[in-house]
Design a protein that fits this description.
Blueprint (H helix, E strand, L loop, with lengths): L1 E2 L5 E3 L13 E2 L6 H17 L3 H10 L12 H8 L8 E3 L2 E2 L7 E2 L6 E3 L9 H16 L3 H15 L4 H6 L6 H8 L2 H7 L5 H30 L4 E3 L6 E3 L3 E8 L1 E3 L5 E6 L9 E7 L6 E8 L7 E4 L5 H4 L2 E2 L3 H5 L6 H5 L1
Parallel strand pairs: 10-13
Antiparallel strand pairs: 1-2, 1-3, 4-7, 5-6, 8-9, 9-10, 11-12, 12-15, 13-14, 14-16
Helix pairs in contact: 1-4, 2-3
């Protein structure tokens, strides 16, 4: 349904309709009672009778029940319902990203944004979780080779791969099974020799990061040497030892662009391995091609794992932000005692 900025319902949206006002929002609400009952019946068939996706689809078709698109049920469409978090009220988005002049790419789960309880669910949480356990247990009987064979056949038939295609395919384990077994869909794709658009883009960004890291170190060495200081880079840890007085960790943070036009950066730390005095965090621009700005973060004030930043951050972090590294270089300038006294 369509709701306005105050949360008042303006009316239902038909299939294919979209909101027209920027301030309006679209949320899900329970459908007709008979449809809600039918969805719950599908979960009961899975849990109580241990029916397969194809057997559930067969029952629905025999009863003359069609999908929301007025089509016959398939094992793929049944699987989509039985694994869909929207039925328990969760809204999951940013599964895919799109940049200008580029194809849609499927994001890994760590980039998904999940809002639990975003709207009223129609399936009890305990029922949904029981169903997921059953679905996962069924796929656990398959070996890695058998799972990858399923993936190869889907790729041969469809010519591409995605989580949506996997979830909609007949007699195919759900995409969550592949993520659980192989760590990510990208990892599973790689094992059958398939590379996604997201992987290709990530590889390009990683290449730029690998090239940019030593470039910044060289600039830092040259600038501090010109200021009369010294820089030594530890080959094992990658930490910079400045004037043998201060230990610096250089961290590059790639930009993640969200579908709504906002941007996010993750600045990660590894306090278990390194304990620098200062972390020099470099945020990359929106295209991940050049430096955007810099943060000089003192070691005593860092969180344990990471900092998540956006376009505008709290004053606590903004106090450490710089447009250039001039201030950083000036920190290590050597000045004679007599000159300073004068």
């Amino acid at each position: 349904v369509l709701v306005d900025q105050s949360g008042e319902i303006k009316g239902p949206l038909k299939f294919g309709e979209h909101k027209s006002l920027q301030t309006d929002r679209v949320i899900l609400m329970p459908g007709p009672e008979e449809e809600v009952t039918q969805v719950n019946q599908m979960f009961r068939w899975l849990i109580d009778e241990d029916l397969s996706f194809s057997e559930i689809a067969e029952r629905l078709n025999e009863a003359g029940v069609v999908t929301d698109l007025n089509r016959p049920w398939t094992s793929g469409s049944v699987k989509t319902v039985l694994t869909g978090e929207k039925y328990i009220g969760n809204n999951v988005y940013n599964r895919k990203s799109f940049k200008l002049k580029m194809q849609h790419v499927e994001n890994p789960p760590d980039m998904w944004i999940r809002k639990e309880g975003a709207f009223e669910g129609v399936v009890p949480l305990e029922v949904f979780m029981t169903a997921q356990e059953i679905i996962t247990a069924r796929s656990a009987r398959l070996s890695d080779e058998e799972l990858l064979d399923h993936l190869k056949r889907l790729y041969a038939d469809a010519g591409e791969l995605s989580g949506v295609l996997i979830d909609q395919a007949d007699d195919m384990p759900s995409s969550s099974v592949f993520r659980s077994r192989f760590g990510s869909l990208s990892r599973a794709y790689a094992l059958i020799g398939h590379q996604t658009g997201f992987d290709k883009e990530r590889m390009q960004v990683n290449r730029r990061l690998r090239a940019l890291h030593p470039e910044i170190i060289k600039r830092t060495e040259a600038a501090i040497a010109e200021a009369g200081g010294t820089v030594r880079c530890d080959a094992k840890s990658g930490l910079l030892h400045l004037n043998d007085e201060l230990v610096i960790s250089l961290v590059l943070a790639r930009c993640q662009s969200l579908p709504d036009g906002r941007h996010r950066w993750r600045i990660r730390f590894d306090p278990a391995r390194f304990e620098p005095d200062v972390t020099l965090a470099v945020r990359l621009d929106y295209a991940n091609e050049a430096e955007l700005d810099y943060f000089l973060l003192p070691g005593f004030d860092l969180p344990r794992r990471e900092i998540r930043m956006c376009n505008r951050n709290s004053s606590h972090f903004e106090a450490f932000r710089f447009e250039s590294l001039d201030f950083f270089y000036a920190m290590f300038e050597r000045v004679g005692i007599w000159k300073k006294a004068l």
